[in-house]
Amino acid sequence: MSRDDDIVQIPDIIHDVNTNISYKKGRFFGKGGFAKCYEITNMINNHSFAGKIVSKKLMVKENQKEKMTQEIQIHQSLRHKHVVGFYSFFEDNFNIYIVLELCRKRSMMELQKRRKIITEPETRFYMRQILQGVSYLHQKRIIHRDLKLGNLFLNDELQVKIGDFGLAATIEYEGERKKTLCGTPNYIAPEILHKKGHSFEVDIWSLGCIMYTLLIGKPPFETSSLKETYSRIKKCEYK
């Protein structure tokens, strides 16, 4: 898809017919998976949000639509100071729009890339917030399944906000084990790779990888080959 095609697809003024609110599209933050993220501003009160915009052209398979619905349902049900705030969602003929809390300090991935190594007191400061957020998710019977620095956002007060619930799943009954292979290679838990079923513990594993990355400056199992990384994870081989 060309850049021009892109401009045609996402209008400069985005209108929510349900609430009759119009948003002005601002700066582009980035893209991942199916979504593009922009700053969007409510034209009535000038409040700014993050707009996660998904093209309906990409939602061709039935399971993709289901996943999108599931992501919205899960995120919509959450209210916590360490989870990205969910405000609303709506659609037009071309796109689905999700209106989220704006985290101006971007993600912890940018922080780590800029600083390389984070001091122990700072890591403690961030980890405590992340743990509070994850603890809340687990109390709500939700596994995030893609906890990584790129999905941890920071607001102006440097409060951590957990975001991106695209891979999240709800544990429906006590002892249920999920089977889907999902996550980001450097943070993926051995339970997921062994495909014997996984639950809340996969998020705890990712938290360990996050803490290691902040303190050491690179993820614990990172290699230049995916196969080798997975092999190290299965053996829990790190220095």
TrEMBL record:
GO process terms (BP): mitotic spindle organization
Q: Kindly give the SMART domains that the UniProt entry links to this protein.
A: S_TKc
Q: Which Pfam families match?
A: Pkinase
Q: What keyword terms does UniProt attach to this protein?
A: ATP-binding, Nucleotide-binding
Query: PANTHER family given for it?
Result: SERINE/THREONINE-PROTEIN KINASE PLK (PTHR24345), SERINE_THREONINE-PROTEIN KINASE PLK1 (PTHR24345:SF93)
Quote the protein name from its UniProt record.
Protein kinase domain-containing protein
GO MF, any single term: protein serine/threonine kinase activity
Q: Which Gene3D superfamilies does this chain map to?
A: Phosphorylase Kinase, domain 1, Transferase(Phosphotransferase) domain 1
Specify the Protein kinase domain's residue ranges. Answer: 23-239
Highest taxon of the source?
Answer: Eukaryota
Q: Name one GO cellular component term.
A: cytoplasm
